[in-house]
Amino acid sequence: MSVFKTRTFTCPDCGAELEFDNYSSINADRRPDLRDEIIGRSLSLVHCETCDKEFRPEPHLNYLDYKNGVWIMAHPIYDIGHWDEDEEKATTLFANAYGENAPASAREIGSSLTPRITFGWAAFREKLVIKEAGLDDLMVEKTKLTILANREGNPIEAGVELRLINAREQAMRMMWINATTGESLQQFDIQRALYDSVVEGGAWPGIDEKLSAGIFVDTQRMVIEPTPREPA
Ligand SMILES: [Zn+2]
């Protein structure tokens, strides 16, 4: 089931207290409208009537989409520096709910689910776009590495990520995005043939193992050195 609580959020622009529906769990099979809202970037969008601006508090929720075969632990972007411990926790959560530690009936469901962890709205949304387009997320990440190696003018800096925005028959729209603000820094299309060539090229020894060493399948795991959380 889908679970949400009404929470308050302080407008980062004017300081007004705003209310929004904060989801801790989404079942996209029962609520496909919520899935559409994630793709449409409107889930949890808060409009501040005082300053007339819109904001999206970061996601922190568990997403189940049996129809599309995906289970996602969606973390806020500010957790990404601790991706290793969050990945471990999410892996255990999945194992207990649908994996090796779950009852047989749940394992049966789990056998058709791919578990993933994401950080921030853009990465979360991207996993749904990939599933919808029938692509493979490891291959999408390898395509990004090809873009990083060959394309000029990539705005590479901390907090900036390359994300797939949509996939059409011939072209795939990519965006360099500020992962915290959601601001688009650059958008460009790549030929679908580039992705296909990555798929046909087979394994990249060393790279494949690194990218798919856990459920955080993202080039960011090769870039961001995780740090332990400060004790509370
Ligand atoms: Zn405001």
The number of E-state strands comes to: 10
Rg over C-alpha atoms, rounded to the nearest angstrom = 18 Å
Uncertain stretches: none
Number of helices: 8
Beta-strand share of residues? 25-35%
Proportion of residues in helical segments: 25-40%
Placed side by side, the strands forming the largest sheet appear as 1-2-5-6-7
Q: What overall form do the CA principal axes indicate?
A: globular
Classify the secondary structure makeup into a structural class: alpha+beta
Biggest sheet character: 5 strands, mixed
Q: Span from first to last CA? A: 31 Å
Bound molecules: zinc ion
Q: Spell the H/E element sequence.
A: EEHEEEEHHEHHEEEHHH
Mean pLDDT: 95
Characterization of the model:
The chain has 232 residues and is an alpha+beta fold. It has a domain at 58-218. The chain is 32% helix and 28% strand. Zinc ion is lined by residues 11, 13-14, 16, 48, 50-51, 53.
Quick summary of this structure?
Helix content is 32%, strand content 28%.
Secondary structure: elements and pairs:
Elements: E1 3-10, E2 17-27, H1 32-39, E3 46-48, E4 53-55, E5 61-65, E6 70-75, H2 83-97, H3 104-110, E7 114-119, H4 121-132, H5 137-150, E8 160-167, E9 171-178, E10 184-191, H6 192-200, H7 207-211, H8 220-223
Parallel strand pairs: 2-5, 6-7
Antiparallel strand pairs: 1-2, 3-4, 5-6, 8-9, 9-10
Helix pairs in contact: 5-6
Bound molecules: zinc ion.
